[in-house]
Amino acid sequence: MIMDKNAASTAGTSKDSANVKLSVWEKTAYSFTDMAGNLLYVTISSYILYFYTDVFGISVGGAGLILLVARFFDAVSAPVWGSIVDHTHTKWGQSRPYFLWLAIPFAVATFLAFTAPNLHGTAKLWYAGFTYILAAGVVYTGIQTPITAILPSLTTNGQERINANTFRMCGGSIGSFITSTFALPLVAFFGKGDDKVGFMWTMFFFGLLAVVLLFLSFKGMKERTIAVQKPIPFKDSLKATVGNNPWYILVVSFVIYWVAQSTRNGISVYYAKYNLGNEQLTSVFNGLQVLGIIATICIPFVVKVTNKTMTMIIGLAIGAAGQIMMGMVGNNFTLVIIAWIIGIFGASTAVAMPFGMLADTVDYGEWKTGIRAPGFLTAVGSAFCIQLGSGFGSFIPSKIMAAAGFVANKTQTAHALSAIHFTFIYFPVIVYAIVAAIMCLYFKYEKMEPQIKADLAARHDADANN
């Protein structure tokens, strides 16, 4: 085990936080963070490609390129935001202030991303690229980073972290449900045939709701492990990744997983519109995501019976089974919906686990290097992974569809319909299998967690007595 005696963040956790149990209200306030985040970000990941091609009038190839290029900015913004959070020290805490400071900028940036001004050619691409990077990259990363970084600061109790993360994921599911179920109907209601106007008013409404939720989350939480933690320079944040193998595993797995998650969300509107003949069925597909709450609620019980790694693998297996079943039932809408719900149960389980497990990699990093860098580790492990995976989850399908001859708002060829079917149904199955194989490497590190927590507690006690 390597110890950096000169690391600026070696003073760890206050004693009274070690086994604290969070109140229902505090866990509910934590759930509001992801509810607000998903309310806006899921709208972006689910509808921005469709908005660009079928509303703003950008080619599918051009839209896919915008989404891919934006990921390079994310590669910079995620670690920068992580370092910023690690350097933040206010009377409100380290992560919590950002829910107050960035709530309105997040809403405004997302509103601008779904605004379609009267531009042409290159100007249209530049506007779309700039507003997308601002909303889905810079500002969203600033919100997503403290959402995950605050968890190890709320409590060091492992089971309470899982419980709090369960609340968070339930909140996220509700946020996804709202946008997925009501986005297109609200666009139709507000726009009255003009989708440009409809998207603007819909995003104004969603943005206002997100601001209220983030303000409530700021008011309802308390950071308990920050008071004794000192600022750390960026180079020491990087040192927290040295030898942090469980963190590497989660980062790689989560990036790849979000390729599938983004594909399922983003291509559902194309599948409903062109393969099933009714784009409003997208609201049915995505609205059913709320049933994932059932799987999320079961996660703490499944973890107790198995462990965190196996729980994630089980979720991936169930998700793959649902996708395969969807591909086997043809256009029987009832059976498609049943298969889709099975897939939701699996995906909701799989997507929830890394958020809670990242808190354990913060502990591992401190144990291994003596540096505790929750902002940096969770920023790269959550926001960066989501954005990079989502970008490829939009870019890869757009290239497959473009190669198959897809043209927006036209009757599609059999080849184009097959491409949409493949990307929506079978492409996620391939991704799930890859992620499950990688996660098998995590088992041995999860077995080390009790000893790591005991070693850290002893170290913190020794530091407090010196």
Automatic annotation (TrEMBL):
One of its GO terms (biological process) is sodium ion transport. PANTHER family: MAJOR FACILITATOR SUPERFAMILY (MFS) PROFILE DOMAIN-CONTAINING PROTEIN, MAJOR FACILITATOR SUPERFAMILY DOMAIN-CONTAINING PROTEIN. This is Transporter, major facilitator family protein. Keywords: Membrane, Sugar transport, Transmembrane, Transmembrane helix, Transport. Signal peptide: none annotated. The lineage of its organism: Bacteria, Bacillati, Bacillota, Bacilli, Lactobacillales. GO terms for cellular component: plasma membrane. It holds the Pfam family MFS_2. InterPro entries: MFS_2, MFS_trans_sf, Na/Gal_symport. The chain crosses the membrane at residues 47-70, 98-119, 125-151, 172-191, 197-218, 238-260, 280-303, 335-355, 376-396, 416-443. One of its GO terms (molecular function) is symporter activity. NCBIfam families: gph.
